[in-house]
Amino acid sequence: MENVYLTDRVFILASGHLIFAGGSAEAKTHFGVAELGELYDLLVDDEAVAKWRGRFTAKPPPAPTPVERPPTGRVRHASHLLTLLHRQAMILAADWKNFLILFAQPLLIALLVGWVASEPQISASTPTSLAMFFAYLSTLWFGCSNAAQEIVRELPIYRREHMVGLGRHAYLLSKFLFFGAVTGLQSLFLYVCLCGVVRGGGELLRGSLGWQVAALLCTALAGVGIGFAISAFCRTTMQAVMVVPLVLIPQILFSGFVVPAHEMTDAVWAPARVAPSYAAQTLVDESIFWGQRLTSEIRKDAENARLGEVDILGHYSTAYHNLELQLNPAIKEPAGAFFPDVPKQIRRTNADGSPFFYRFVGPGLFAVAKLLGWTLLGYAAAFFGLRAKERG
Fold it and tell me: What is the mean predicted confidence (pLDDT) over 196-215?
């Protein structure tokens, strides 16, 4: 009875009759009590009940309160989404130790990678390949570990809030947006740290900045999607934690870095081509190739990496592994024999004698599409997994 003040309206029944309806403060005034628990002493017999019933019915009825129209579906979902995002930010801000760990991980990983990838005997392109390999694998791990425990841990809270109108899409979208942003920031911080510590031959990370950043951000979204799919189908947080390594270990094997693409059998290469890590490695290789002069060395590396018109959609599949871009301007072999976009009669120079540089966006865009596809697939899996758990 001491918590009745939390309610909007109070209805008091005695001997089967309604003797009061109104607010809790109004009820104390009406009955002349300091606490509503004292009503048990006032309503001890039928005579007292009849007296209070008469006083209630003699009062003029209150004016009807205008009923506000409920917000439309889009407005309600937008309001829920903003509220959930704000709540998630407040949870993270309240636990400064967790916030510190989130961004201490990239720094520690960058220092370790810089220690390994900056040896002087490593060739000019290898530090970039090795550093970016660890970067996108770490990003996958960031995304999966950040998201894998969220849904299964908050399931009781979600069920209660879903019963009073919280939409499934609003809940999942808030999670994806928040943890996608957090994981993206972690990956960018890792990349900045790597640029500061990884050196090969006196140079920083080589390659196209745009393709490398795209690789990390798209991988972050894919990792978050996979993590939420794991969380939606696991029964406990412990199960989710145990499943994450089982998902990430194949990403190492199918990335095209540990086992080069040209050394994979067809049976291994088929699942590798759809793996998120393979798409990320494609973007890394695209970044290393981007803007380089086409030579026989590059052509040979591309052949070993199975670059060509192998997709039924007409895209290119790439994994330019172990690029040793020892460019030799004296070589003038036809580039068009392997790169379909280059006419066969054109050699390593254009018709005006200017050098021809690698500018094929097809492999990179296809890799971005695959990573975003994994993100959408993870969202769909989390959506249906969450729907199956709403009733317990």
Answer: 72
Distance CA 51, CA 19 (A): 9
Structure tokens at 268: 């291994």
**Range 69-92 average pLDDT:** 79
d(CA 345, CA 356) in angstroms, rounded, equals 13
Q: Is the dihedral of CA 7, 10, 14, 18 positive or negative?
A: negative
Element (H, E) at 303: helix 296-304
Q: How far apart are CA 9 and CA 25, in angstroms?
A: 10
DSSP of 194-214: HHHH--BTTB---S-HHHHHH
**Predicted TM-score of the model (pTM):** 0.70
Residue in 105, 141, 133 with CA at minimum distance from that of residue 117: 133
Q: Report d(CA 296, CA 195) in Å as an integer.
A: 30
Task: Note the helical H segments in 23-167.
Answer: 24-31, 39-42, 46-58, 73-94, 96-117, 126-147, 150-163
Using CA atoms in the order 194, 199, 204, 210, what is the torsion angle rounded to 10 degrees? Answer: -40
Phi, psi of 111 (to 5 degrees): -65, -40
Considering 3-17, 119-133, 168-182, the range whose residues carry the highest mean pLDDT is: 168-182
User: If you ran DSSP here, which 8-state letter would residue 19 be given?
Assistant: E
Token output for 166? 């919280």
- For residue 357, CA distances in Å to 4, 239, 292, 324, 342 come to 76, 49, 5, 16, 11
3-class secondary-structure state, position 290 = coil
Residue 124 has pLDDT above 60, yes or no: no
d(CA 114, CA 199): 7
pLDDT band at 217 (very low <50, low <70, confident <90, very high): very high
